[in-house]
C-alpha cells in the first residue's frame, strides 16, 4: 500500500464480507475493474478463487504464479509449503514455478511460462521454497513481457 500511495496509484479495497450477497460483491468488483479500464490482473499469492464473471470478462488477462510445475502439484490445497512438502515427499528431482492464465478452476489455466529448479536430497520445504521464490520473481516479469509484447 505504501508503494501505491507514494506513486499516486489508486487503492481500492472491496471485502466480500461487507456486501449483503456474494453476487452483489462480484457485480461491484467487476464494475470497479471495468470503470477503471483495467488491462491486466496480476495475482501473486492470492488464495481466493476469482469469480467466474471476472474470469470471463478478463479472459487471458489474469495471470497467476504458482510455486510448482503445473499441472502436477496444482489445485485446491496445493499452495505454499504444502506444495514443497509434496514435491519432497514424492522424491521429485525437479520443481519450479509456473505462470499461467487464470481459469474457473484452480491452477488449470493455460500455462504461459515455467522455470525449473533442482530438488536436492538435502532440500527441505523451506530451502526449496527459497529456490522457487528466487525464480518466481524473474519468471513473472518475463511472462508479463511476453503477454504485453504478444
What is the makeup of the main sheet? 4 strands, mixed
Structural class: alpha+beta
Radius of gyration: 17 Å
How much is the average pLDDT? 94
Q: N- to C-terminal separation?
A: 30 Å
| Tally of structural domains | 2
What pattern of helices and strands is seen along the backbone? HHEHEHEEH
Task: Kindly estimate the percentage of residues that lie in beta strands according to DSSP.
Answer: 15-25%
Judging by the overall fold, what is the CATH architecture of the largest domain?
Answer: 3-Layer(aba) Sandwich
Secondary structure tally: strands: 4
CATH class of the largest domain: Alpha Beta
Tell me the strand order in the biggest sheet.
1-2-3-4
Number of helices: 5
Q: Which regions contain 5 or more consecutive residues with pLDDT less than 50?
A: none
Write the CATH homologous superfamily of the largest domain.
Formyl transferase, N-terminal domain
Amino acid at each position: 500500500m505504501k508503494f501505491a500511495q507514494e506513486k499516486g496509484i489508486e487503492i481500492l479495497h472491496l471485502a466480500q464480507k461487507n456486501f449483503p450477497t456474494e453476487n452483489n460483491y462480484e457485480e461491484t468488483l467487476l464494475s470497479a475493474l471495468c470503470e477503471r479500464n483495467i488491462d491486466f490482473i496480476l495475482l501473486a499469492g492470492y488464495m481466493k478463487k476469482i469469480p467466474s464473471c471476472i474470469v470471463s470478462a478478463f479472459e487471458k488477462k489474469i495471470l497467476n504464479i504458482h510455486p510448482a510445475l503445473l499441472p502436477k502439484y496444482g489445485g485446491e490445497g496445493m499452495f505454499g509449503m504444502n506444495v514443497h512438502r509434496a514435491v519432497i515427499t514424492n522424491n521429485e528431482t525437479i520443481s519450479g514455478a509456473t505462470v499461467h492464465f487464470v481459469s474457473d478452476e484452480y491452477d488449470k489455466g493455460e500455462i504461459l511460462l515455467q522455470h525449473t529448479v533442482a530438488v536436492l536430497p538435502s532440500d527441505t520445504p523451506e530451502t526449496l521454497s527459497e529456490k522457487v521464490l528466487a525464480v518466481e520473481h524473474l519468471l513473472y516479469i518475463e511472462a508479463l513481457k511476453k503477454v504485453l509484447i504478444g
